[in-house]
Amino acid sequence: MHKLGLKKNEIKLVPYTEEYHCEFCTVKDEILRTVPIEENRIEHIGSTAIKGIVSKPVLDLVMGIDRLQSIDPEIVAGLKKSGFLRLKVERPEEIIFAKFTDDTYQEKTHFLHLVEYNQQLWHDLVFFRDHLNANPGEREAYQRLKKDSIRLTGIDEYTASKESFVKRIYSKRK
């Protein structure tokens, strides 16, 4: 497997490998041992969950809880035991945690998106993965967009360049 990890503001795309799924299963098992959560509330999302396309070497997971406004402290403590630390990223419908290569906290290997289970963002993230895995044309279009976007100057521009594509896919769910 390609080594997981990206430094802040680094953009790098690597080929897909089946080992991403194995890594997801390993991390999910770690989380289930330390966090009081049901197995069906943790999913592999993002480009590493889409077969055959390039991705940044960072694994994305989504974890669904009942309410973001009142997170059970055991969840945060359990995630910390599994190596996930809460980031200072402010987003209205999610809280972001990351796992790092070491305690210098310079290189992230995993992102965990904590969202409300069975709400819109949960469904959008899972639908995006499932839709691209089921539609080769959309998958190829997304890969082309990612490869074209990597030429942009920074991670924020790279992410912004994909936004309209992602929103278009989300709209197909409704």
Describe the fold and architecture:
This is GrpB family protein. With 174 residues, the chain is an alpha+beta fold. It has one domain: Beta Polymerase, domain 2. It has five helices and six strands. Strands 1, 2, 3, 4, 5 and 6 form a six-stranded mixed sheet that branches. β5 and β6 form a beta hairpin. The chain is globular and about 40 Å long.
CATH superfamily: Beta Polymerase, domain 2
Unreliable runs: none
The total count of helices amounts to 5
The helix fraction, in percent, is 40-55%
Q: Give the averaged pLDDT, no decimals.
A: 94
Any idea what the radius of gyration is? 16 Å
CATH class: Alpha Beta
Q: Which CATH architecture would you pick?
A: 2-Layer Sandwich
The helix-and-strand class reads alpha+beta
Give the amount of beta strand, in percent: 15-25%
Number of strands: 6
Query: From N to C, what is the helix and strand string?
Result: EHEEHEEEHHH
Q: Give the N-terminus to C-terminus distance in angstroms.
A: 36 Å
Strand and helix map with partners:
Layout: E1 6-7, H1 19-34, E2 42-45, E3 59-65, H2 73-81, E4 85-86, E5 95-100, E6 107-116, H3 120-134, H4 136-149, H5 155-171
Parallel strand pairs: 3-6
Antiparallel strand pairs: 1-6, 2-3, 4-5, 5-6
Protein name: GrpB family protein
Organism: Peribacillus psychrosaccharolyticus (Bacillus psychrosaccharolyticus)
InterPro entries: GrpB/CoaE, NT_sf
Describe the structure concisely.
The protein is of the alpha+beta class. It contains five helices and six strands, in the order βαββαβββααα. The protein is globular, with a radius of gyration of 16 Å.
